[in-house]
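(Fold this chain)
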Amino acid sequence: MIRAVIFDMYETLVTMTRSVPYKGTNIAKDLGLKAEECLYVGDGGSRELETAQAVGMKAAQATWYLCEGFGQLVGRKPEFEQLEKPEDVLGQV
């Protein structure tokens, strides 16, 4: 059961993606939760989704900001659940 949603933000990105995946579990621990009780939502850059998944979190890609043809650095990552609009997060908890 998902008890917390962790959104992509600078502080989380720095903590989770500096080639030290175990730090991702500290985010959950700081919340008093197990990693598997957390959903990490991010755009998919900097391998954040892969890192969240590696430490045991469910990971989903926020795709609501993607505009085809505008040259985003990260495209869709079909191996992760795609959240098309912010309210789709509610369906995960």
In short: Strands lie at 4-7, 38-42, 58-62, 81-83.
